[in-house]
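Case study B.
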Amino acid sequence: MAALGRQVLDGHRLIPLTWSLIARQTTRLGGQKRTTAFLLRKLTMVSSGGGLGESPSVEPQKYVQEPEHRTGLTQCLLEKQRTAVEREKVVSSLLDMGFSDVHVNELLSIQPGTHPQQLLDIISELILLGLNPEPVCVALKKSPQLLKLPVMHMKKRSSYLRKLGLGEGKLKRVLYSCPEIFTMRQRDIESIVGVLKEKCLFTVKQVTEILHRCPCVLREDPGELEYKFQYAYFRMGIKHVDVVKTDFLQYSMTKTKERHVFLERLGRYQTPDKKGQTLVPNPLLRDILRVSEAEFLAKTACSSAEEFGVFKELLAREEEESEGRMADAGSPEEAGP
Amino acid sequence: MAALVGRGVRDMLKRADFMTVPRRQRHKKKWAATEPKFPATRLALQNFDMTYSVQFGDLWPSIRVSLLSEQKYGALVNNFAAWDRVSAELEQLSARDFVNEAIFHGEPEPKNGQTAAPPPASWACSPNLRCFTFARGDVSRFPPARLGSLGVMDYYLMDAASLLPVLALGLQPGDTVLDLCAAPGGKTLALLQTGCCRNLAANDLSTSRAGRLQKVLHSYVPQDVRDRNRVRVTSWDGRKWGELEGDIYDRVFSLVAEIQAVWILTESWLYHLSAREVWVLVDVPCTTDRHSLHEEENNIFKRSRKKERQMLPMLQMQLLAAGLLATKPGGHVVYSTCSLSHLQNEYVVQGTIELLANQYDIKVHVEDLTHFRKLFMDTFSFFPSCQVGELVIPNLMANFGPMYFCKMCRMT
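Model:
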């Protein structure tokens, strides 16, 4: 799919642009976007400095335009035309990639200041990662900062994500809930992946699965992520496979602790022993974490909202105090050496 | 090669070593490693899970979560300090005096109802007690008590439910009170706060616990009051038995010693007194459910104290019998524990009454505390189906108790 897209793209570059095409485009644009004329002009001024020379297909027009560079009026007109040319190129490329007219317009209006070529590069990179046009649109609208990224950075990050296994259809979910995956520092991603692989001993496949199912782990502090896993593994007795399958890592530590400790003290949850046995049948993890609080109280805990409210307050205080005690116990050791 | 030789030599040596040890002294090294090490608090929890889930059914999970979470306190205002100022201070913390509130709210009720007669005298709560608690569901804490201007502490922080037995005793001014097993002192202090005790005898078997009681009294009650009320703290101890702690038989002996001590105490005490009624508070040693779940030290659910635990109901019966025998006909006894177990609560009461009827021909009447329960329903949650007496069950909204109390009147 992606390969096809690229072919089409390349093919398109070879088609020479005719003046009639440009003229048609200009009139359409003039009709539609008179209000943005000022912005467009600004955009062209910026673009004439940088990206224009790069693509050979624009070259002939520049050449043609050269002699008429005299009067201000014509210059203005020409700039408009040039923008229009670029836009036209980008638009048709986008259309070729499978975006609908509506999408194209949306994309162009996300950040009017962006160079069209830049836009095209970023989008084509995303398409190459196996995303469909629709999700790309949604993602870019949600996080316009992606459009500002340098193309090289984008390319590097894409190849890294491919290495992590997040190509081919898996990126959509990631991009929706954690668009930072492109903007954050490489080192931070690596440390998270490192914790999952080396500290928590997930297999490579499981790491991919985790990144795909709950991308929000990327936002977490590596130390806290490790603690969360250890809580699941040692305290709640959940195995690696189930941690992945139940999306355990996406829930906040506070929520998990509140619900788990509440159930434990009610006598409705037990940490399984070495053989995975418990005296009482534990409720399913999805009935504990994935449900709303009301449903959790009614079906899983069989308790009242008031009691759970009081319990949460008490637990928060317990946690705070035990942390304080740990800090107290820790400080003399730190002071020692 | 060298390693092989080395191992061979080692094997030889081992074998030789093995041969030199006499057969009877050979032992398996992994002896105790296989035995699971359960902390006593966990044993306690397992025990409760087994017995109480049957006893309380659907109520048990909510009791369990409350027992395992932080308990609520009540601040018993010290009447020997500047109590009005202390009360005002506590009110500022948005705590409220539940005793006062209960009595005020409770009073109009009988007037409106068909039973126009005021509640009988035995319903009357012991007077002068002020105990502040935070409202239901409020988890604030009281700051630690401070030394007041009069040289005694402002208030005493205790489980507010512990006050109920004292309130249920219904003391009148000039009464003589015997407090069996008094330590650590909350109830004894409350007894003194009523201002009704002409004489107060407090006993606790263990010297260290009696010492704690003394300390509490010292820091809360001025010297002259202690003298005037003729507060006597005794520790009819099994000191000579106490030194041999650890051995089950000695412990059983020490229990017997406690019973004997009670007998001696009551006899000698009654000898001093006129023929007035004696009010007895029998707050017996029990499995102290909440405490056993949190404190590892000296936990009664330790394996080594199993025998002692099994003997508890017997001890409790004997103590209650001693208390009942210490009163004259018409005298009142309140029996209390801080356990949820029916075995240590209603069965003990019923068993003792039967025992006294059969062996001493003494009739004991169990008083109905329903009215009393209604008074304090807002503050505490009560177990709805006790055969005799009342049981406060812990609840997260009002995390007091557990506290069982039963009021009895000796008829003959």
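The interface with chain A takes residues 49, 53, 60-62, 64-65, 68-70, 137, 139, 395-397 of chain B (CB under 8 Å). The remaining cases will be described in the next quarterly update.
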